[in-house]
Amino acid sequence: MTDFSLKLSDDQIGIQSWVHGFAEDVVRPAAEEWDEKEEFPYPIVRQAAEIGLYGWEFMAEAMSNDPTGLTMPVAIEELFWGDAGIGMAIMGSGLAAAGILASGSRDQVIEWVPQCYGDPQNLQLGAFCASEPDAGSDVGGYRLSAKYNEATDEWVLNGTKAWITNGGIADIHVVIAVVDPELGSKGHASFIVPPNTPGLSQGQKYKKHGIRASHTAEVVLEDVTVPGRCLLGGKEKLDERLARVREGKRGNAQAAMQTFEATRPAVAAQAIGVARAAYEYSLEYAKERHAFGRPIIQNQGIAFMLADMATEIDAARMLAWRAAWLGKNGQFENAEGSMAKLKAGRVSTWVTERAIQILGGYGYTREYPVERWHRDAKIHDIFEGTEQIQQLVVSRAISGIRIE
Ligand SMILES: Cc1cc2nc3c(=O)[nH]c(=O)nc-3n(C[C@H](O)[C@H](O)[C@H](O)COP(=O)(O)OP(=O)(O)OC[C@H]3O[C@@H](n4cnc5c(N)ncnc54)[C@H](O)[C@@H]3O)c2cc1C
Fold first, then answer.
1. Which fold, 10-123?
2. Is there a catalytic annotation at residue 384?
3. Which one is predicted more confidently, 323 or 257?
4. Quick check: helix, strand or coil at residue 50?
5. What's the 341 CA to ligand 1 centre distance in angstroms?
6. CATH code matching the domain that covers 255-399, chosen among 1.20.140.10, 3.30.360.10, 3.20.20.70, 3.40.50.2000
């Protein structure tokens, strides 16, 4: 086990400043345009691919050569400091890759993860499809079904997924499906739907409050037929797991939950990046803006707000780094991943709201970026487990009681 340290390695500092440079030079200047357009920013993602930031090699390198777990949150904070919508467009495929890593065999990882990214000449995207129109938090309520045809060794998927990042525009869709409805959330399995599979289509594209450069849509599956090798983990393992559950023995955590648990410290880092952008901007503004003959920061009412913002951001980062380190070293005890995500989402929403307050009327206009950061921050209280779901996970972990 690696010791926990706040001191980043030289490699990590190098990655931090490399991503910061891209965020400052490319992402931040493009943020307003893509937020207004509300379209997937292909040219920016292509640039990210050209420098090696969008790609499975970066993910693999950052994760495998990092015993501390801190490299990804450090990189993600910088990227989202640039812009959260574009940041999600660059990081969204990572959720699909994480889904494959969580449940797939070695061969499946090697075959499908690179296809979630493609290369700069042939950009590809991945989508992780768990939520449904009638079941987001309530994963036991998923209905999209997968039925096995033994004669052809094929699975047939039917149903609708909702709120899917890169949904319908992705090349690889990782789909959580119900294989045994009687087992609730333990009767799920994950499937790869390969590029151009007939029957998969995009439903409505959502018009969103924030992260508008990130594409979010429904995904409709009508008799989508995939070969047996697209079942992540394989049929034998699935049958063994379902048999254990039916016998009343403890099954593995549900497929979707495994993915979310692994990604929560990274989502916390996204929120922290947005908060830091708003905090830094409002700090500079408070030094420049004069009212009653002096810079507004000379009023304790403003200075103390900034002091609280700085403190809360650092507190959220400490929780995110702790969770990332615990996750990497297999040491989660009290749902620390959920704690980090809960805290960081709230801090981001609060800090960005305070930033608008510090800018006054200007902060409320689209001439200044703080209103966009406030819109972007809010998603971190919602996706990958809402605020209340994180509270549920933490309260169950600390009490050992099944809180409902
Ligand atoms: C921009 C965006 C991108 C997304 N990307 C993806 C993606 O790529 N893949 C994917 O699978 N999903 C994605 N989601 C879906 C997201 O994870 C869900 O929206 C989220 O899990 C909440 O589900 P819901 O919207 O159905 O809300 P609900 O589950 O209906 O919750 C509504 C409210 O009730 C509360 N609530 C629910 N149950 C409880 C309870 N037991 N106790 C207390 N309060 C409760 C919730 O906290 C919330 O406040 C995305 C969503 C958005 C908005």
1. Butyryl-Coa Dehydrogenase, subunit A; domain 1 (1.10.540)
2. yes
3. 323
4. helix
5. 14
6. 1.20.140.10
